[in-house]
Amino acid sequence: MKVCEKAKQYSGKDVLILAIETSCDETAASVVKNGRKVLSNVIFTQIALHTQYGGVVPEIASRKHIEKINQVIEAALREAGVTLADITAIAVTYGPGLVGALLVGVAEAKAISFAAGIPLVGVHHISGHISANYIEFEELKPPFVCLVASGGHSHLVVVRDYGKYEIIGRTRDDAAGEAFDKVARAIGLGYPGGPKIDKLSREGNPDAIPFPRAKVAQNEYDFSFSGLKSAVLNYLNGCRMKGEAFSQADVAASFQKAVIDVLVEHSLHAVAEFGYDKFAIAGGVAANSALREAFGRECGKRNVTFYCPSMGLCTDNAAMIGAAGYYEYCRGVRSGLDLNAVPNLKL
Ligand code: KG4
Ligand code: ZN
């Protein structure tokens, strides 16, 4: 990024971002140097806590964030070998997400910014997911097409420049991750569904059950997963009514293949139509092993370079917020102490 490179030349100093992420059920903090190098990446995951309820309970998530946030930030600074005096700016996720969960991170970031006199930069959670690719691939520069598939979003995005996004496709109903979680619950796998379906699918036949691949008439890049979810539920009900056993692994593998087919087809159609030779994936669903394999194979056939962050950078973390925050900071973005959590923040 030109602005930051210039700033560095003049001052000879690295830009260190302290990043905070609390939008859902991970309490996370990280120190990132010059947008690409992760000095620390601390995550306290609340998954075990929410598993007993079959999904994230917002009140419990907020309370746990409050309990853990200071420890997580202290650990991130300690592991990076820095103190607040070394930090150039604080980046914090301020949306989208659960309002009570977001508020914990935002309030904490504002308090540190005020007390230590460090500039504050609010970051969009999805911009963070996309920016995880910058950490993993030093050579990656916009423009490129990115598929963001998480628990709350399924967006097909043209990344025009750092922090400059154009959403060309989105889900009309359920997000891809949400479909994974709901189907997992229906076949008795529990929460969180994505990783469990991923694992079980390896033992199943992806062509066993012909689940539908939805097309959205008005926009070729949009997604719809609720019909697929209903088809799985109908299949399970049909089996129960007939007193027939069903194979959990076959249902999981067939469902997963139906999701992946649609994601791959729409994404690579966009890459071709927009004429880019770079494609990236991001978000929790990007951790799916069959999805990574399918995109790797299909991009290879088309001479498109495929970027996919390591599994730990796909699911929620603060390092990705540090990377996105760096580019926002370089563009001159500064948030005031009136920064608020915005649960439905637009990209
Ligand atoms: O990005 P993320 O950690 O949080 C949100 O911003 O939503 O995504 C969480 C979602 C969950 O729905 C989870 O089931 C899904 O990502 N997920 C996966 C896998 N790992 C996480 N879905 C499919 N396969 C996986 N291996
Ligand atoms: Zn996320």
Could you characterize what this model shows?
The chain is globular and about 70 Å long. A hairpin with a 2-residue loop joins strand 7 (154-161) and strand 8. The two termini are 20 Å apart. It has 347 residues and is an alpha/beta fold. The protein is built from twelve helices and ten strands. The strands form two sheets. Strands 3-2-1-4-5 form a five-stranded mixed sheet, with helices on both faces. A five-stranded mixed sheet has the order 8-7-6-9-10, with helices on both faces. 46% of the residues lie in helices and 18% in strands. The longest helix is centred in the last third of the chain and has 27 residues, at 248-274. Zinc ion binds next to helix 5. Residues 125, 129, 150, 283-284, 316 line the site of zinc ion.
| Gyration radius over CA | 20 Å
Q: Could you name the ranges where pLDDT drops below 50 across 5 or more consecutive residues?
A: none
Count of separate DSSP helical elements? 12
How confident is the prediction overall: mean pLDDT?
95
Largest sheet: 5 strands, mixed
Global morphology = globular
Which small molecules are bound? 5'-O-[(R)-(carboxyoxy)(hydroxy)phosphoryl]adenosine, zinc ion
Structural class: alpha/beta
The succession of helices and strands, N to C, reads: HEEEHHEHEHEEEHHHHEHEHH
What's the oligomerization state?
Answer: single chain
Strand content: 15-25%
Q: Numbering strands along the chain, what is their spatial order in the largest sheet?
A: 3-2-1-4-5
Give the terminus-to-terminus CA distance: 20 Å
Tell me how many strands there are.
10
User: Into which percent range does the helicity of residues fall?
Assistant: 40-55%
